[in-house]
Amino acid sequence: MSDAGPIRGALLRYRVMAIITGTLLLIVTVGMLRYLPGLDGVKEALDPILLPVAIVHGWVFIVYLAAVAHLWMLMRWGIVRLVFMAAGGVVPVLSFVAERRVTREVATTVGA
Protein backbone atom coordinates (compact mmCIF):
# COMPACT_ATOMS: atom_id res chain seq x y z
CA MET A 1 0.00 0.00 0.00
CA SER A 2 1.69 3.16 -1.16
CA ASP A 3 -0.53 5.81 0.42
CA ALA A 4 -0.83 5.02 4.13
CA GLY A 5 -2.32 8.41 5.12
CA PRO A 6 -5.98 7.55 4.44
CA ILE A 7 -5.52 4.14 6.04
CA ARG A 8 -4.07 5.67 9.20
CA GLY A 9 -7.02 8.06 9.44
CA ALA A 10 -9.52 5.25 8.85
CA LEU A 11 -7.76 3.12 11.47
CA LEU A 12 -7.92 5.90 14.05
CA ARG A 13 -11.64 6.43 13.41
CA TYR A 14 -12.23 2.68 13.62
CA ARG A 15 -10.31 2.38 16.90
CA VAL A 16 -12.19 5.27 18.54
CA MET A 17 -15.55 3.91 17.42
CA ALA A 18 -14.68 0.36 18.50
CA ILE A 19 -13.85 1.54 22.02
CA ILE A 20 -16.96 3.73 22.32
CA THR A 21 -19.26 1.08 20.85
CA GLY A 22 -17.76 -1.69 22.98
CA THR A 23 -18.07 0.36 26.15
CA LEU A 24 -21.71 1.21 25.50
CA LEU A 25 -22.45 -2.42 24.65
CA LEU A 26 -20.89 -3.56 27.93
CA ILE A 27 -23.07 -1.10 29.84
CA VAL A 28 -26.19 -2.39 28.08
CA THR A 29 -25.14 -6.00 28.69
CA VAL A 30 -24.54 -5.42 32.39
CA GLY A 31 -27.88 -3.62 32.55
CA MET A 32 -29.59 -6.65 31.07
CA LEU A 33 -28.44 -8.69 34.07
CA ARG A 34 -31.32 -7.10 35.94
CA TYR A 35 -33.55 -9.77 34.41
CA LEU A 36 -31.77 -12.52 36.32
CA PRO A 37 -33.85 -14.02 39.11
CA GLY A 38 -33.20 -12.47 42.50
CA LEU A 39 -32.09 -9.06 41.21
CA ASP A 40 -35.50 -7.38 41.31
CA GLY A 41 -34.25 -4.50 43.46
CA VAL A 42 -31.68 -3.55 40.85
CA LYS A 43 -34.30 -3.29 38.11
CA GLU A 44 -35.83 -0.05 39.40
CA ALA A 45 -32.41 1.57 39.70
CA LEU A 46 -31.23 0.62 36.21
CA ASP A 47 -34.38 1.13 34.11
CA PRO A 48 -34.11 4.93 33.78
CA ILE A 49 -30.44 4.70 32.80
CA LEU A 50 -30.46 1.70 30.47
CA LEU A 51 -32.91 2.89 27.82
CA PRO A 52 -30.99 6.06 26.89
CA VAL A 53 -27.69 4.16 26.84
CA ALA A 54 -29.21 1.47 24.60
CA ILE A 55 -30.55 4.13 22.21
CA VAL A 56 -27.17 5.89 22.07
CA HIS A 57 -25.47 2.55 21.44
CA GLY A 58 -27.78 1.94 18.49
CA TRP A 59 -26.86 5.24 16.85
CA VAL A 60 -23.17 4.87 17.65
CA PHE A 61 -23.27 1.36 16.19
CA ILE A 62 -24.27 2.83 12.82
CA VAL A 63 -21.26 5.17 12.89
CA TYR A 64 -19.10 2.21 13.95
CA LEU A 65 -20.31 0.23 10.93
CA ALA A 66 -19.36 3.13 8.66
CA ALA A 67 -15.86 3.22 10.19
CA VAL A 68 -15.59 -0.57 9.79
CA ALA A 69 -16.67 -0.44 6.15
CA HIS A 70 -14.27 2.40 5.33
CA LEU A 71 -11.22 0.68 6.81
CA TRP A 72 -12.26 -2.65 5.30
CA MET A 73 -12.53 -1.14 1.82
CA LEU A 74 -9.18 0.64 2.09
CA MET A 75 -7.43 -2.52 3.24
CA ARG A 76 -9.21 -4.69 0.63
CA TRP A 77 -9.87 -7.49 3.08
CA GLY A 78 -12.25 -10.41 2.54
CA ILE A 79 -15.87 -10.60 3.62
CA VAL A 80 -15.04 -12.73 6.66
CA ARG A 81 -12.98 -9.86 8.10
CA LEU A 82 -15.88 -7.47 7.52
CA VAL A 83 -18.29 -9.73 9.40
CA PHE A 84 -15.77 -10.19 12.24
CA MET A 85 -15.26 -6.45 12.61
CA ALA A 86 -18.97 -5.62 12.35
CA ALA A 87 -19.86 -8.27 14.94
CA GLY A 88 -17.78 -6.31 17.44
CA GLY A 89 -20.70 -3.92 17.83
CA VAL A 90 -23.17 -6.61 18.88
CA VAL A 91 -21.06 -9.24 20.70
CA PRO A 92 -19.88 -8.00 24.10
CA VAL A 93 -16.08 -7.61 24.40
CA LEU A 94 -15.51 -8.58 20.74
CA SER A 95 -15.01 -4.96 19.67
CA PHE A 96 -11.98 -4.71 21.98
CA VAL A 97 -10.53 -7.98 20.70
CA ALA A 98 -11.18 -7.05 17.07
CA GLU A 99 -9.73 -3.57 17.56
CA ARG A 100 -6.44 -4.96 18.87
CA ARG A 101 -6.23 -7.59 16.14
CA VAL A 102 -7.09 -5.17 13.33
CA THR A 103 -4.70 -2.51 14.64
CA ARG A 104 -1.88 -5.04 14.78
CA GLU A 105 -2.55 -6.25 11.24
CA VAL A 106 -2.82 -2.75 9.78
CA ALA A 107 0.41 -1.75 11.53
CA THR A 108 2.13 -4.81 10.09
CA THR A 109 0.78 -4.24 6.61
CA VAL A 110 1.00 -0.46 6.32
CA GLY A 111 3.27 0.56 9.16
CA ALA A 112 0.57 2.69 10.77
Q: Let me know the average pLDDT.
A: 89
Percent helix: over 70%
Count of structural domains: 1
Structural class given helices, strands, pairing?
mainly alpha
SS summary, helix count? 4
Work out the radius of gyration.
16 Å
The percentage of residues in β strands lies in: under 5%
Count every beta strand, where a strand is a DSSP E run of 2 or more residues.
Answer: 0
Head-to-tail CA distance between termini: 11 Å
Q: In sequence order, what are the helices and strands, one letter per element?
A: HHHH
The backbone outline, from C-alpha atoms, is elongated
What would you note in describing this structure?
The chain contains four helices and no strands. 80% of the residues lie in helices and 0% in strands. It is elongated. It has helices at residues 5-32, 40-75, 79-87, 94-110. It has one domain (5-110). The model has no long low-confidence stretch (mean pLDDT 89). With 112 residues, it is mainly α.
Question: Which helices and strands appear, and what pairs or packs with what?
Answer:
Blueprint: H1 5-32, H2 40-75, H3 79-87, H4 94-110
